[in-house]
Amino acid sequence: MVSRVGIVGDGVIGMAIALVAASRGISVTLFGDHTPGAASPASAGMLAPSVERSDGPGQAFSDAARAAWPRLLELVRVQGDPGFRLTQQGILQVALTEADADRLQRSLRGPDRWLGAAEARRAEPALQPNLVGAAHFMDDGLADVPSALASLERATLRHPLIARHRTPLRRLDACGAQLTLTDAAGADHEVDHGVLAAGVWSPTLEGLPRALPVTPLRGTLAAVGVPLLSVPVYGPDGHCYVLPREGGTVIGATADAVGFDATPGPSDLSTLQRTGSSILPALAAAPITQHWTGLRPMTPDRLPILGPDPALPALLYACGHSRNGFLQAALTAEVIADLLTGTDRADIGPFAVDRFIERLNT
Question: Which among 218, 216, 193 is positioned nearest to 317, based on CA atoms?
């Protein structure tokens, strides 16, 4: 049984891992400093694996991850926190052409429903009047990002087995079967296992046994102060979306490979308003009241990196979730906690780090 774990990264994934591991009796030290450009606070919080479905291992993991969120909510409440807003009323994906409608109808599964144009607009009256119809993905939902992050923050601060360190880590070194984690102030922390969950900054930790192919993809979102929706709605391509949040409407999201530049691009806001208004025409005239940007941690195959390093088993990876970090956070936490306690249940072979052959110093 592992007794001491150091988690590198305090975003939604790092905090979720800390809470799940501590709930199983593991002493956790959580390192992180809320780096500007972090993906978690910039996330939309969509729990929508039904959009852009595939037949690969990532799809099965995302479907299971959606179902793990209520369990994470319960762990937060065990710590005496009121919890966060989690809605599972489904999402819509609109069809603006007959070709869209044909493709989306073929994507329906299980309890999903097809809504004709009139029915879709009865459900969400602000939708584009010229839409052909909409797919209603019944099992999908939304985690409210601000309240989820705040709840996880409070729960990790309250838990007696979790220590928080606001100084970021700079290096790890193997010490027999253990690890030494060195922070930016030069202090050393000995742990039985380290968990790397630092998003786009994961590859920058010194002492890693291999290079990690995790690169940043900038995403900008915007909000207007007008509530227009009751459930999230995707456009037909699955990239543009609009969602309800705190008395307003969020529009997302751009995607630009510009390195670690976390400032919005010059045309990002106009692009968001244009694409958002193709779903909700009222957005065309609504002034943007807020915008923000995050760096998604992308891998070449868009799948996460999960599990131990073959060359350094004391190091576990929980990074590279690409566009699905918030969706997959709760299940990632359970998977890592399973590995730490020797009760692994999920097949994470497709997400092993050694599917990438590049190593440091080779």
Answer: 193
Pairwise CA distance, residues 29 & 321, whole Å: 22
CA gap 138, 127 in Å, rounded? 18
3-state secondary structure of 165: strand
User: Strand, coil or helix: what is 138?
Assistant: coil
What six digits make up the tokens of 297?
């941690």
Question: Cα dist. 346→24, 38, 311, 328, 342 in Å?
Answer: 17, 27, 22, 13, 12
Residues 179, 190: contact at Cβ < 8 Å? yes
Note the pLDDT tens digit of each residue in 285-344.
999 999 999 999 999 999 999 999 999 999 999 999 999 999 999 999 999 999 999 987
Whether 175 and 166 have beta carbons less than 8 Å apart is answered as: no
d(CA 326, CA 143): 8
45 dihedral zone (left: phi>0; alpha: psi -120 to 50; beta): left
What's 70's DSSP letter? H
CA-CA distance, 264 to 148, in Å (whole number)? 24
Residue 5: partners with Cβ closer than 8 Å, 6 or more residues away:
21, 26, 27, 28, 29, 191, 192, 193, 194, 195, 340
Give the SS3 label for residue 73: helix
* Per-residue tokens: 232: 């999230």
Helix (H, G, I), strand (E, B) or coil at 172: strand
